[in-house]
TrEMBL record:
PROSITE patterns: ARFGAP, C2. This is ADP-ribosylation factor GTPase-activating protein AGD12. Residues 228-346 form the C2 domain. Residues 86-200 form the Arf-GAP domain. GO terms for molecular function: GTPase activator activity; phospholipid binding; zinc ion binding. InterPro entries: ARF_GAP_AGD11/12/13, ARFGAP/RecO, ArfGAP_dom, ArfGAP_dom_sf, C2_dom, C2_domain_sf. Keywords: Calcium, GTPase activation, Metal-binding, Zinc, Zinc-finger.
Amino acid sequence: MTASAARSSDGVKMVISFGGWKQVSPGINAARDQTKTVGSARLDVQAGGFNQVEPFQLDVVKSSPLYGGKMSNVYYRTERSASVQKRKVKELMLKSDNRICADCGAPDPKWASANIGVFVCLKCSDVHRSLGEDISKVLSVTLDEWSEGDIDSMFEVGGNSYANSIYEAFLPKDYRKPRSNSSYDDRSKFIRSKYETQEFLKPSLRIVSSKMSFSSVESKNSLNYRIDSNSSTKSVESRQFIGDLKVKVVRGSNLAIRDMFSSDPYVILTLGEQAMFQKAQTTVKQSNLNPVWNEELKFSVPENYVTLKLQVYDQDVFSADDIMGEAEIDLQPLITAAMAFGDPELLGNMQIGKWLQTNDNALIDDSTINIIDGKVKQEVFLKLQNVESGEIELELEWTPLDE
């Protein structure tokens, strides 16, 4: 689609072409009582020797200043489209796991690899740029213009923790990743091993195409939530699910005191929203700040799954139960890694992914995802939030539904 404007004897004339169809606006003396909305376009404006070509979202309003030869309305829409694109990228960058560089951990990264789907610091972006755009397309979050394809690629991956759960799935435990003060050579060695030769990725998942992407791994954002047209009369079991999640609540440690000298704790887990909402609860452990549950709770995970929420309460007989802390469990690394590796029964015991600990999540340490005896499992150690003390140990097990 193209649009052009040129000054005629009676004003400014604009030509809009779309799929062979053209509309030619008359000059300023013509009728101005109609509006036509046109989608994405390129604008070629020629007036008084001025030529400007910009991408924009255009509402062709025949009473707009454009028809009087003024360009302010066109500039406004052009800048607005660009600002919307930048805002979407910045919103993704502000997610907790994207506030540190995906490669060295430096705070407040302002650069990104659009096709890999990670946010990186300035120093690491120099190494990424040296890899070439076929491996890493480097863009500034604040300075560069982002295409819709670049933005879609970033959102499809979901950010640093999801990308690292794949690209660092086989990172040796004793491997020293670069830090914010590391040299260029140290960064280069790690980044090239991670993305160029993909040494820490499962061999069968190594990407050989010229465009680096997670095309082989279905991310959360690419899973469209579909409900039957008669869903209002169907049960939750008839909705679309992608797998079953077993959560073993193993134990709690150093839980907060809510009674005189102790507490009577129990755990509530919730998943989903509105009609897809699911809730499960452990038993109550009387007068115990270090309870051992070893109780298994089960959930059916829908296509547009959200975080698993955990809350610990103290049971009271004569008043409302007191909160003893909470935490959220990100299911994305577990499910993404399981999808990437396929049927676990065909594989030996191995590590396939990792949920990384950051200052913005409740993890005590990195949580590894493993195939153990044909099952995809993950151990999770959480520090309870919004409370003076308390830790919870969980074991997750993922089983995808048969196609």
